[in-house]
Amino acid sequence: MNVVRIIPCLDVKGGRVVKGINFMDLRDVGDPAEAAEAYCREGADELVFLDITATVESRGTRLEWVKKVMQKVTIPIAVGGGIRNIEDVKALLDLGVNKVSVNTTAVRNPELVREISKKFGKENLVVAIDGQKNCRETSLSRLEVVVKSGSESTGIDVVDWAKRVEEMGAGEILLTSKDADGTKEGYDLEMTKAVAEAVSIPVIASGGAGKLEHFYEAVTIGKAAAVLAASVFHFGEISIPRAKKYLKEQGISVNI
Q1: Would you say residue 256 lies in a domain?
Q2: pLDDT at 200
Q3: 254 within domain boundaries
Q4: How many domains, the chain?
């Protein structure tokens, strides 16, 4: 069995870590650099840093925010939000970022996925996919990709899009359920499993972690290669060491 990674997520707005429910009602959590440093001490395997309003505000990633975090991290970090072109990718990698994450831009300009992968290597490229269950009778897709921080529907099927970005050179997929985000009621196991079984690259489950069992379900039922969470880690409800200890006790391979 592959080693399952535990990944805290820093959603950053206005230079502060924030967290909401279903991508809405954001609460201030703290300073990104301080949070990053704490998660490194706790034994997180990786970090994800998302500049969550960059695309909505039609701007690039705030490099000054990333720089402050990079001064504190001792583990691999992926950065997303506001990446629009090859130059944006290079600027982040030059700062020492290990991976870049593209989401809305990938949907708008799919060829950018291929370009990034070819120039910088698939190991440096995460494609983030935000999905929601779609109840609109006119929709062809029940699991639909949403963009611009979940504010815009696309009509694109989540599984079809996952297979396409893999073909274009994505190294892994960060799959977030808008419906489950911040609810602490568990990951969207149906969507996670559907994507994980459709692609051969790693899938990171995101959105909905609320208790230890949810991490286990994401791996065993959802077939995720890694589990990402924010609320339960930010608010001290579950610690990284506790999550790893629990998974190990359930027979899941983790880095202790």
Answers
A1: no
A2: 98
A3: no
A4: 1
Residue 255 lies in a domain: no
Question: What is the model's pLDDT at position 24?
Answer: 66
How many angstroms separate the CA atoms of 128 and 176, rounded?
8
11 in catalytic set: yes
The helix, strand and coil proportions of the chain, stated in percent and rounded to the nearest 5, come to: 35, 30, 35
Backbone angles phi, psi at 203, to 5 degrees: -115, 125
Q: CB-based contacts of 246: which residues, under 8 Å, 6+ apart?
A: 212, 215, 216
Residue 184 lies in a domain: yes
Q: Cβ neighbours of residue 180 under 8 Å, at least 6 residues apart? A: 186, 187, 188, 207, 208
State the CATH number of the domain containing residue 198.
3.20.20.70
Q: Are 41 and 240 in contact (CB under 8 A)?
A: no
Catalytic residue among 130, 157, 181, 188: 130
Torsion sign (Cα): 57, 24, 106, 170: positive
Q: Can you read off the two tokens belonging to residue 182?
A: 């911040």
| Segments of the chain scoring below 70 in pLDDT | 1, 23-25, 135-141
SS3 229: strand
73: domain range?
5-249
Question: Are the CB atoms for 72 and 93 separated by under 8 Å?
Answer: no
User: For residue 23, what pLDDT is reported?
Assistant: 62
